[in-house]
Design goal:
2 domains, single chain, seven-stranded parallel beta sheet, globular, mainly beta, 304 residues, 2 helices
């Protein structure tokens, strides 16, 4: 179902998919921030937070210096070339899964529409040809913080300069997947998010970034100019997050209510009992009795 409201020439678009999207199984390709089939090329001060790989190609240029990889570089002329080869195989599987009508049936057809100005709920969105983003795309997960967004694009994905993908309800693109039938081009200064799975190549113009996602090119190159790619893992399941929070809260309560005994081996051999109280992040130790300061140096320290 699609509802469009036109007000003063501005299109506010809320799309509800008839099908719930499935998380695309990236396999070992999910361990990479940047992965290419032919080459990975960087110009300028690109920063990659995550692993970089290439296979079956072998060329990775533009790092150390000036680009920086906060991770490992994998390829046939680098360490563990088989790792990159395996990741490319998993990328092919993931791409086919995302493109499949059976695995990811189309919920809403956006063909011929610009993604800019849209506000989309989790679901599967399809383009029978190319897709364009001009301006800001809002992905709204307020009703489902763990919702999955899948964009099935038959040919190219292009963003205009200074476009952006933003979120409501969560803070990342770990559950966002862009299946691109040919190549993806992110325009100058674009603040993108999610995992791009391109059949051919991915180009990032000057200053473009991918937050909580990856640039994964199945057959072609990944080309970057002063870019930032920050990979991330999906958020933990709600039950896991709740257990972690409850455990942390229990630990804090235990610490706040506990009595502590402090002893310093070089300054007195008698432990000092007392309690610790907290105001914000400031801890205050209150001894049970009064303390006497002893300025004499312990034997054997060589001090007088």
């Amino acid at each position: 179902m699609r509802v469009s409201v036109i007000c003063g020439g501005f299109l506010s678009f809320w799309a509800l998919s008839a099908y719930a999207a499935s998380i695309v199984p990236l396999g070992t390709a999910g361990d990479f921030a940047v992965l290419a089939g032919s080459t990975v090329t960087s110009t300028g001060n690109t920063l990659i937070d995550g692993n970089v790989g290439v296979s079956p190609g072998s060329l990775i240029t533009g790092f150390y210096p000036p680009g920086i990889v906060n991770g490992t570089i994998y390829g046939s002329v680098y360490a563990n070339g088989a790792v990159a080869a395996g990741a490319e195989n998993d990328l092919t599987t993931a791409y086919n899964f995302a493109a499949s009508i059976e695995d990811e049936p189309c919920g809403t057809n956006l063909s011929g529409m610009d993604l800019g100005g849209m506000n989309l709920a989790p679901g599967v969105y399809c383009f029978t040809s190319s897709a364009q983003l001009t301006g800001t795309l809002m992905l709204d997960a307020l009703t489902d913080p763990n919702g999955v967004f899948v964009f099935k694009i038959a040919s190219a994905l292009t963003t205009a300069s200074n476009s952006a993908v933003l979120f409501q309800g969560n803070d990342g693109g770990g559950n966002v997947f862009w299946q691109v039938g040919s190549s993806a081009t992110l325009g100058v200064g674009t603040a993108f998010a999610g995992n791009i799975l391109a059949y051919s190549s991915i180009s990032m113009d000057t200053g473009a970034s991918i937050n909580c996602g990856s640039a994964l090119a199945e057959n072609g190159a990944v080309t970057m100019i002063d870019n930032r790619v920050n990979s991330c893992s999906a958020a933990p399941e709600p039950g896991t997050a709740m257990l972690l929070s409850m455990g942390l809260l229990s630990l804090i309560l235990y610490v706040k209510q506990s009595e502590f005994t402090f002893a310093k081996s070089q300054r007195g051999a008698t432990p000092v009992p007392g309690t610790v109280s907290y105001i914000g992040v400031t801890a205050t130790f209150t001894p049970v009795g009064s303390l006497t300061v002893n300025m004499a140096a312990p034997a054997g320290t060589g001090r007088t």
